[in-house]
Amino acid sequence: MRLITLEKRMSPIPMAGMVIPVISIALALLAGxxxxxxxxxxxxEIYFTLFQSAFGSSYGFSETVVKAIPLALCALGxxxxxxxxxxxxxxxxxxxxxxxxxxxVALTYPEGSRWVVLPAMFLAAAMAGGLWGxxxxxxxxxxxxNETITTLMLNYIAIFWVDFLxxxxxxxxxxxxxxxxxxxxxxxxxxxxxxxxxxxxxILALIAALLVYIILKxxxxxxxxxxxxxxxxxAKYAGMSIVKTILLVMLISGALAGIAxxxxxxxxxxxxxxxxxxxYGYSAIIIAWLARLNPWAIxxxxxxxxxxxxxxxxxxxxxxPAASVYMLQGLILFFILGxxxxxxxxxxxxxxxx
Amino acid sequence: xxINDILVEMKGITKAFPGVLxxxxxxxxxxxxxxxxxxxxxxxxxxxLMSILTGLYRYDQGELAVHGKKVNFNSPxxxxxxxxxxxxxxxxxxxxxxxxxxxAMGSDSWGAILxxxxxxxxxxxxSMEYGLQIDPKAKVWQLSIGEQQRVEIVKLLFRGADILxxxxxxxxxxxxxxxxxxxxxxxxxxxGKGVIVITHKMQEVIEHADMVTVMRGGKSxxxxxxxxxxxxxxxxxxxxxxxxxxxxIETGAPxxxxxxxxxxxxVSDRGHKALKDVNLIxxxxxxxxxxxxxxxxxxxxxxxxxxxxxxxxxxxxINKVDMTNRQPLDIIxxxxxxxxEDRHNTGLVPNLDAYENILLKHYLDKDFRKGPFIxxxxxxxxxxTLINKFDIKLSVPEAPVKAMSGGNLQKLLLARExxxxxxxxxxxxxxxxxxxxxxxxxxGLLMEARREGKGVLLISEExxxxxxxxxxxxxxxxxxxxxxxEVEKTDIEEVGLMMxxxxxxxxxx
Lengths: 354, 509
Fold this sequence. Notes:
The complex is a heterodimer of chains A (about 350) and B (about 500).
Chain A: E1 4-8, H1 16-38, H2 43-55, H3 58-83, H4 91-108, H5 114-143, H6 147-167, H7 201-218, H8 220-230, H9 232-237, H10 242-269, H11 280-290, H12 295-316, H13 324-340, E2 345-349
Antiparallel strand pairs in A: 1-2
Helix pairs in contact in A: 1-13, 2-3, 2-12, 3-7, 3-10, 3-11, 3-12, 4-5, 4-6, 4-10, 4-11, 5-6, 5-10, 7-8, 7-12, 11-12, 11-13
Chain B: E1 6-17, E2 20-31, E3 35-40, H1 46-53, E4 61-66, E5 69-70, H2 76-81, E6 84-87, H3 99-105, H4 116-130, H5 145-158, E7 163-167, H6 175-190, E8 194-199, H7 202-208, E9 211-216, E10 219-225, H8 231-239, E11 257-267, E12 273-283, E13 287-291, H9 298-305, E14 313-318, E15 321-322, H10 328-333, E16 336-339, H11 343-347, H12 354-359, E17 369-370, E18 373-374, H13 376-389, H14 406-418, E19 424-428, H15 436-451, E20 455-459, H16 463-469, E21 472-477, E22 480-486, H17 492-499
Parallel strand pairs in B: 3-8, 3-9, 6-7, 7-8, 13-20, 13-21, 16-19, 19-20
Antiparallel strand pairs in B: 1-2, 1-4, 4-5, 9-10, 11-12, 11-14, 14-15, 17-18, 21-22
């Protein structure tokens, strides 16, 4: 006996782009609250502290922005791939390869001036990240090898490759055996705004969002992405090359994540070290979905998720593991994906018909 | 159940979907001991009718009696309980399971503990009885398509089905496998089961069926014993409407050869030869019609010309330039317009707006782009011009085109393709699903294209349309060209014979 059934919507609900994510987040916080309450804490108090420490002080605010920068760049990257239904979940690995390439430039040319070294680091990072995105795109484009698996697997290779470098050949001889490289010279660091840790990577993220917006709205290539994403058969019919589109999208998608890796090593850690990313590449997937692939919304959601990360550290002082934040992130994605169905369907009460 | 008892009786079955009358007063009677062919083209309503019989849909009006009991099934489970079983075109098997496991899966009368050895024994018994040879321990992925089909049939027998429905069962089989299948089906019929075969192959009907019900446009147009009919009559029943009212409005003035196909051979998605040594010429200023029962290579022919499907042998020449196995973009640039069979997802993108759909064939035009940027203002002006010129009705051009009616969608598509100034137009079932007004508009546009000296290849399932528009007719049957006819010098009898597989005597390419 079924009481409720799903029915196809005749017309989309107004403001679906806003309503569904907001309700999803609310439900995620509610479900997360249950877990927090079970662990003997007051969920409201926890959420308040989280909010307070992320947005309530100038230090917290700047830390939130610091986290938002790599999140936004990675999310812009994956959003392009998602647009053509390529499930690139390899932003994490692309981020690490970008960070590695930037580090290589910084360590190889320690004497260089900022005007030369930083652009070189930028290019190297974009290329390395781009190639890491291109690698799984090749089997995908030619033999339809599932990119979800390959991009994910390449994450581990990238992360362990970086581990190998910082435990081995690139290890700082003066680093007391810690897994990190020597600190960068001044020429290889991104300047910051005032005394805060907010670095010029912020400008890169804003420019990237603007570029993605322009590409999608005003260029022929953006139009092709739209068509390929909507219907591959129509794209072929119109003479578009699916193979070329896949390769190029994944190259750019990876390049953006690679640039995020560069801004993180050059702006924040100023060296390559273990655990460089607290999962930026994975959070980016959630951000891109929440923002419905809209570049401006990605900036906003990245900021909110940055707050979740920066506020998360304050939870430790309340006796909660910092990983609680990842639980919340996971719950948000869970409800977002679950809520997707209400874009095209609605619940209908059919009563007790047996 | 004795031979000749009525197993299924459908009377005046009517089923409507939004905007479509899928079944309109359909009658079908299936008796024990017979192989009953359900013949009809794609979209004739065969699948809907069988979905009603298997409990997937409920009918709106009419009567359905199974084993003499009136029913209107709520779910497939109800239909299975009444002994109805169906072998779908796409098998529903778990390929990593063994044959026995697959059969066990389909039956729920085994309690909590699976007694696979018992099932195996019963399987062996079925094999003996019907000559259904399958190794019960083999994994399904190791089996040939024909063997997988046998597993599906055994599954039905296991559930105790005595009314078996097979959807296009020979479409995936080799001729030898097809023969073996019919031997099995005949044995089952002799046991007193009723067998319904959905097909559009007339030859098969003549060779193997006892009764034939022909469907067309959602109606059952005739039920005849096989012995009292022949392929020509069946072909006419399937496709032919009354042809008395056809007056040829105008004819073409054929000029230079635009398209030349030489010895074209191509493979279908399923890996069969879909086109065999096809020779064809289309001239400027003529409409070349392609007749044939749907599924005889028409789709592949259109795809081959437009570069969407590679050919394995032969040569394609467009405007005296060799275009064999070139990319779709090259063909578009060579001036070939294409009105595809699937206008909703191939010719147009439903979620994009009218401007973006017009852009689909113009995104490389200098008129509409400047460097990497799209000239939206030029595009919207051009789109407006087309909307006015072709009298396309839409709410606003900014709305996704999926909201438009079928006729207006087709007009939008035609407007774009014809305004590209092509020298060849490939039109595949261009009026399918349209109302009378839209049909006339579309036909008018094709005739106007001919008047302007364009070559038109018109693939159609409506013989009267072909006689009305085309200057010459080529008939496809199982991927082979049966011959090319001058429309003025032929008649429906001859075309019907050729559609049934008889080679043409008069014309040649």
